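User: My collaborator sent over this chain with a note saying "see what the structure looks like." That's all I know about it. Can you take a look?
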Amino acid sequence: MRAIIFLFRRRNQPGGLGHRLAEALQELGPSFVKFGQTLAVRSDLIGDEAADDLALLQDNMPAFDGAQAIETVERELGDKVEKIFSHFNPKPVAAASIAQVHSAETIDGQLVAVKILRPDVEAAFAKDLDLFIWLANTVELMLPNFARYKPKAVVNRFKELVHTELDLRLEAASASELALATENDVGFKVPEVDWNRTSERVLTIEWIDGIRIDDVEKISQLGLDRREILKNSAGVFFQQVFRDGFFHGDMHPGNMFVTSEGTLVPVDFGIMGRLDRATRFYLADMLMAFLQRDYKRVADIHFDAGLVPPSQSRDAFALSLRAVAEPLFDRPLNQVSIAGLLARLFRTAEDFQMEVQPQLLLLQKNMLVAEGVGRKLDADSNIWILARPLIEGWMRQNRGPQARLLEGAEELASLCLRLPQLVARVDRLLERAEENVGGQVNDKQFWSAGSSSQHRYRLPFLITIVIIFSATSFICGYLYNI
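Assistant: Without extra context I'll predict from the sequence alone. Here is the result:
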C-alpha cells in the first residue's frame, strides 16, 4: 500500500513511470530497492523505458555503525576481531541494502574484503516479502490475462535471490563454483573465498585492486589494449552462458574490475543465473539462426521447443520475426544489438502466446549491460561478432551429428539404468490388478490373464517392448537430426 501511495503522490512530477517508481522504491527501503532491481529485468511487464530506469536504481544505503560490524564478526566467527584480523577497518568501503563491506588484513598478511549483513535485515525482508506475495497472488486472481507475465514467478525469483543474499555462505559457494568452472580461462579470475573467516552473516574474500571495466580513461593510462579486454570479456560471458550454464547475474560495471595486467575480476556473487542444457541449446540455435537471418528456422526452433502453442501459425511468426529483426541487421555490424534483438523477440512472441522465460530475461538484461560496456571500450566492435567463432565452435561440438549421437546414447543408458525400477513398478501394478479381481486379471482389465503361465511372460514382453521402443526412438531421432 505504501508503494502505491508513493507512486501516485509523484504522478505529477517530471520523469516517466520507471523514474517515479525508482524514487518511490528508494524511499520505501532496502526490500523495495532489491525488488525494483529484480523487476528491472522484466521489461515485458513494465516496458523498456521503465525497466531501463529501474536498472539505474542504485543499491546505496547509509552505513551501519562499525562497532556493530565488529560485534557481528566476533559473534559469527567466535573470537575477538584482533585475533581474526591483524587490521580491520571499522569504516565500510561500501554499504548496500543487505550488507556492507569492510577492508581488512588477516593474521597471515592477506588483504581481504569482509562483507557483513545488516543487523535484523532478515526480519525486515520477511515482512516486506509477505506483502509482495500477497500482491502477486491478488494480481493473478483479479487479472487472469496478466498471469502469463508470471508475477508470482517474479516474486518467487526475488525470494530466491534474497534467500541467497541473506546467507553469505551461499554467495561464497557461488563464487567458489564460478571459480572452479573458469579456473582454466585465461585473463579471468574469481577472488578466492576465505572459508575459515566466512559464516552465514560474514563473507571474507580476497581483496581486489583494480579499476571498473567502464573506466576507459584509466584503462588507457595503464597501457592496456581495450579491444583485447573487450574480446576477453565477450569470451568470458559466452563461456559462462553456453559452456557452463552458470553466469554472473548482476554484471554491471561496478561488479567487474580490470587489474593492471588486464585480467578481468568479478565481485558480488549474490545474483547468479543458471540455464539448463536444453535452454542453452535453444538459445544457441536461435542466435545462430538469427545471425544467418533464417527466420523460418527461428520460428521452427520456438515451435519445436513448445514455447509457442501449436495452434499459432509458424509462417506468421516467421514473418513477424523478419519484420522486427531486419531493421537491426541493416545497421553496421558494430551497432547490431543481440540484447535488443532478444527484447524484440520476446515482445513479438507475446502476440503468439509464448510464455515468458524469466531466466532468459535475466540473461537478456546482462547482455544489454555487456553491450553498453563493450561500446565504451571500443565503439567500432561488437561483442557478439567477436564471440561468434566461439559460438560456432561450441555449436559444432555440442549440436553436430556426433554430439547428438552421444546425447542419444546417454539418454538410452539413463533409461536402461531406470528400467529395473520401471519394471518393478509395472510388476506391482499387475499384482494389485490381480488382487482387485480375486487373483486373476481378465482381458478387459489388463493385457491378458488366465493361467499363471501367461503371467510369467508379461514382464519379459514388457521389457522387450520398452527396449525396442527406446532403441527405435533413438535411431530415428539421430537419423532425423543428421
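A starting point for your reply to your collaborator: Residues 3-8, 446-454 have pLDDT under 50 and may be disordered.
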